[in-house]
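ARCHIVE CARD
CATEGORY: sequence design from structure
SOURCE FIELD: tokenized fold
FIELD CONTENT:
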């Protein structure tokens, strides 16, 4: 009996050592892998009614990268200018937040640097936001009389922004033992992220799942009503939507994989809201589609992808100087 227990213990030690060595090796030789996870220290519960926001004057790590929040609860703006500038407000989820890349490499940071002397950009984006959160933020800012400060409002819309449920998980949300384990693996193990990417086509899985959201009449009705509600608080001529694609859409035939963008464009056109579909431009990029996104991700842009998004916004004069 003792010999059997010894063998079991010995084998467990061997497996643990092998896993640690593999983890160490992946961290050294796979610099493109980014872990997931969000520090709760940067979140302020119920900032916009039931929607959390960024905690003013806080800092923490999101997807392994350090972020800073200014005194107004927006992602830090490194560009300082004494000139009188127009104010622009950016809405978005984790893509616009720029998770997984350095703060100064996000498309928002690049745009702020480019328009440093003419525009002041406030970025309210937060991981997990969706159309329901955008509406609540607009309502709260209208209530606080801060919406009128902005000359233009841009919504960087990701396919998974069409949800009904609360997508941002706060500190009070409970996790099971298994979900806690997977959360720990996603936030700390490069090996886990790497193996998951090798084992399946994450980009296709994400796209197939989120594409179904645009065939659901209940979700489409909710999306339409939330956009209509937003327009009630902000004039449609101040609003623009930038539609952000998934890697799978760029990799495959986009014209056959753009149902979500078609639905959004039709909806926005009826409300006289200007919109931009960035996908055709990214398809023409000289870079491979997977190089524009984080490893085994398919949703969040890499530094190269952020560069391409900023380039599109500048060349298409999306921002009004």
């Amino acid at each position: 009996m003792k010999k059997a227990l010894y063998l079991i213990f010995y084998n467990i030690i061997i497996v643990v050592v092998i896993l640690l060595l593999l983890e160490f090796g992946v961290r050294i030789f796979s610099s493109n892998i980014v872990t997931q996870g969000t520090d709760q220290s940067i979140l302020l519960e119920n900032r916009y009614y039931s929607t959390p926001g960024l905690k003013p004057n806080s800092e923490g790590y999101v997807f392994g990268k350090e972020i800073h929040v200014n005194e107004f609860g927006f992602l830090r703006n490194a560009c300082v200018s004494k000139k009188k500038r127009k104010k622009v407000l950016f809405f978005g989820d984790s893509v616009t937040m720029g998770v997984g890349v350095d703060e100064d490499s996000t498309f928002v940071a690049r745009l702020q640097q480019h328009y440093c002397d003419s525009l002041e950009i406030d970025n309210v984006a937060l991981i997990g936001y969706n159309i329901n959160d955008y509406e609540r933020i607009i309502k709260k800012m209208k209530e606080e009389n801060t919406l009128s400060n902005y000359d233009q409002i841009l919504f960087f819309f990701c396919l998974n922004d069409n949800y009904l449920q609360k997508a941002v998980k706060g500190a009070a949300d409970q996790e099971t033992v298994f979900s806690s384990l997977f959360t720990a693996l996603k936030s700390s193990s490069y090996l886990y992220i790497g193996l998951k990417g090798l084992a399946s086509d994450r980009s296709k899985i994400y796209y197939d799942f989120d594409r179904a959201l645009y065939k659901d009449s209940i979700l489409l009705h909710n999306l339409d009503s939330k956009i209509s509600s937003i327009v009630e608080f902000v004039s449609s001529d101040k609003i623009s939507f930038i539609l952000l694609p998934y890697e799978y859409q760029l990799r495959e035939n986009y014209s056959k994989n753009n149902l979500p963008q078609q639905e959004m464009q039709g909806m926005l056109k009826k409300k006289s809201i200007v919109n931009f579909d960035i996908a055709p431009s990214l398809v023409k990029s000289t870079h491979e589609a997977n190089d524009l996104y984080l490893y085994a991700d398919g949703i969040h842009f890499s530094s190269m992808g952020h560069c391409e998004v900023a380039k599109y916004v500048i060349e298409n004069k999306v921002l009004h100087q």
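CARD ANNOTATION: The longest strand covers residues 152-158. The radius of gyration is 21 Å.
SHELF: design records, drawer C
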